[in-house]
């Protein structure tokens, strides 16, 4: 049954060779920039027309930062982490017991880290142009301002306890943009779909589900709302094999008498694929 279940890639919609190409090209660019900076600080420091110490140090720092960005890209798009059963817990959520699947967040930290690197680079570029009295000092500001406006919302996302919650009554998510909930009787099925960058496991409700609730998180600028009622879990967020989770959701949807398992260890074992 597991082998015939929905398939889910842990990366975006592009083939893996495309991502490997990005890693190789960015790694070579970062390493090359760092090497040029080191040469400017050492063997070329006395050469005529060579970079000054500030430019050499900036090149080294920029190259190392870009290598760090390349590493985070690899971790997000190409690294297959080992299953971590410790992220599947039995605890109380509100007033009821639940099985809680804590999301991985590496896939979400990566763009935030890249944005921070770009902000620092653009800020340094702007400062250098201002000190030099160059008329084009405002050009990097065009990059800085949109990122500065977006960063507070990214911080609010990362501060959330991202998770999938399964209880005897129903299931819900604390996701990047808000909190969603469905009762089991309103669940029609589970699908794997492509949503922007990621493949996601989507819990699909019946038409006009009476139990559907959605509450958007706090926002600094804006937060997108879902087009319709559904619960989405991005592929990279699963700390264990997503197919076991899908099978467990389908089991509890079809078998109301089994939902009481979600109050204890039996539900946790089924989510992990350890149920007999």
Please state the structural category: alpha+beta
State the low-pLDDT regions, or none.
1-7
How are helices and strands ordered from N to C?
HHEEHHEEEEEEEHH
Rg calc: 24 Å
Quaternary organization: single chain
How confident overall, as mean pLDDT? 84
Query: What distance separates the N and C termini?
Result: 13 Å
Q: How is the largest sheet built, in terms of strand order?
A: 1-2-3-4-5-8
Main sheet specs: 6 strands, antiparallel
- The count of DSSP E runs of length 2 or more, i.e. the number of strands, is 9
Roughly what fraction of the amino acids lie in strands? 15-25%
Helix content: 40-55%
SS summary, helix count: 6
List the topology elements.
Elements lengths: L15 H26 L11 H25 L10 E6 L2 E7 L3 H26 L9 H18 L4 E4 L3 E5 L3 E6 L3 E9 L2 E8 L7 E4 L14 E4 L7 H13 L10 H7 L5
Antiparallel strand pairs: 1-2, 2-3, 3-4, 4-5, 5-8, 6-7, 7-9
Helix pairs in contact: 1-2, 2-3, 3-4
């Amino acid at each position: 049954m597991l082998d015939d279940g929905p398939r889910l890639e842990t990366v975006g919609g592009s083939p893996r060779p495309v991502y490997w190409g990005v890693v190789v090209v960015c790694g070579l660019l970062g390493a090359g920039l760092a090497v040029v900076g080191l040469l400017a600080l050492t063997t070329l420091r006395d050469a005529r027309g060579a970079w000054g110490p500030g430019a050499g140090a900036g090149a080294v720092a920029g190259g190392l930062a870009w290598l760090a960005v390349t590493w985070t890209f690899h971790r997000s798009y190409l690294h297959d982490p080992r299953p971590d059963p410790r992220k599947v817990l039995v605890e109380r959520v509100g007033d009821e017991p639940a099985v809680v699947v804590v999301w991985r967040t590496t896939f979400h930290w990566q763009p935030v880290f890249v944005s921070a690197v770009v902000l620092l680079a653009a800020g340094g570029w702007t400062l250098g142009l201002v000190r030099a009295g160059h008329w084009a000092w405002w050009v990097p500001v065009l990059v800085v301002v949109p990122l500065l406006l977006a960063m507070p919302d990214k911080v609010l996302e990362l501060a959330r306890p991202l998770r999938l919650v399964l209880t005897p009554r129903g299931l819900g998510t604390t996701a990047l943009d808000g909190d969603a909930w469905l009762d089991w009787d309103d669940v029609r099925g589970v699908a794997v779909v492509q949503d922007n960058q990621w493949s996601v496991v989507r819990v699909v409700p019946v038409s006009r589900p009476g139990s559907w609730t959605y509450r958007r998180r706090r926002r600094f600028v804006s937060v997108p709302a879902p087009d319709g009622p559904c619960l989405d879990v991005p592929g990279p967020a699963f700390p264990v094999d997503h197919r076991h989770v899908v099978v467990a959701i389908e089991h509890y949807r079809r078998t109301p008498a089994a939902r009481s398992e979600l109050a204890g260890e039996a539900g946790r074992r089924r989510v992990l694929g350890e149920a007999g």
